[in-house]
Structures
1.
Amino acid sequence: MANRTIRTSKNRAAVLAALTKGWSVHGACRQAGIGTRSYYDWRDDDPKFRTEADAAIEAATDYLEDIARHRAINHSDLLLIFLLRSRRPAIYNRRQLIGIGGDADAPPVGVQHSGVPDNVHFYYPVNNRDRPEELPDERTIEGERDEDAA
């Protein structure tokens, strides 16, 4: 039996059209009647096809962003927040640092608010991490042992 090629202009057009509509590589290949391995081999062997496929995927992503924007504005505050955070993280995804207590000799404990309700992270400036060191189970927050407090 002769070796049959999947690299035809018909298959090329079918795969690129499906990718442009937002289908995954797997879905686009299924619609064109070719295997995903064949698609990736084709991509690896043909720089022009790779460029066209990447452009099709990018066009589909733009289209999906347009749909998400429409839904965010008309239906979903949460989706709108995600879009704003991705486009302007310095404004909508920033962390707020609030100092608590302390004196001139000891730095204050810091609180970072991540912007998510009920999600506050404490850190100690002396260890420069965004989460506190774990306290051993046998100690209380004041530093006294449970048996000493009794």
2.
Amino acid sequence: MQTVTTHAGANLVIGGRALHTRQRVGRSRGQLDALPRNVSQHRRFPIGTYRGLRFGLTLHPQFPPEVYLEGAATRLGHPLS
């Protein structure tokens, strides 16, 4: 919580570029389209940072992808379909 509070005014950063609200959807779409559709082993793909926390996708060979959010601890969850 301290990291999120400290970075409350920070922009979303994807691929090293700070994005403003209107740019978010288009830029993140390109980053996601570049990910492989299938993987033969567990692979983690960092995407960017939000409020000082790193986030990305973890792809699995036989399971749906997971979104991760990482700071002092890591949280995992399945993206909405």
3.
Amino acid sequence: MISNKKNFTNYYFDSFISAANKINKKKLGLFVEDLLTVKKNHGRVFFLGVGGSAGNCSHAVNDFRKLCNIESYSPVDNVSELTARINDEGWENSFKDWLIASNLNKKDALFILSVGGGNKKKNISTNLIKAIDLGIKKKSRILGIVGKEDGYLAKKGDNVIAVPLISKKLLTPLSESFQSVIWHYLVSHPKLQVNSTKW
């Protein structure tokens, strides 16, 4: 906690600058190649996230489809199906069962946006954990942007960028903001973007 509230503005924005300078640029390049492979193989990208990350998933689906012509979907975009699955099969199975109905296969990629990335021991983001396990079983590529390097996603994913932890107090805002920064980088990359933006 910042003792002097007058310094919070500088502290907040300096943290974002620091995180941007420390982001793993090599992994960003690998993301581009992973997504090119999925597109070349006529695979699909399934965006998964909960909370604020779920909102980011919807936006990312739009951008990947519209700007890159990459077939993309997210279970959070159909509230009727998602809540029916939660009601009938439970929260922990909601994403996994949706992916099974979507015929997830080795040509596809899971692109998970998460602050913590799931934790089995603490029973956190169990629906993401089960989706990751299914992705491994189906030999799908597992990509992610996460805030914690010790979560399930960071341990099990094929290519996962951990947003540099500049401040525990800012873990969530940094993680969820950089999800947007990074996917916008990807859809703007000359190797991926095929359609121009309006403005």
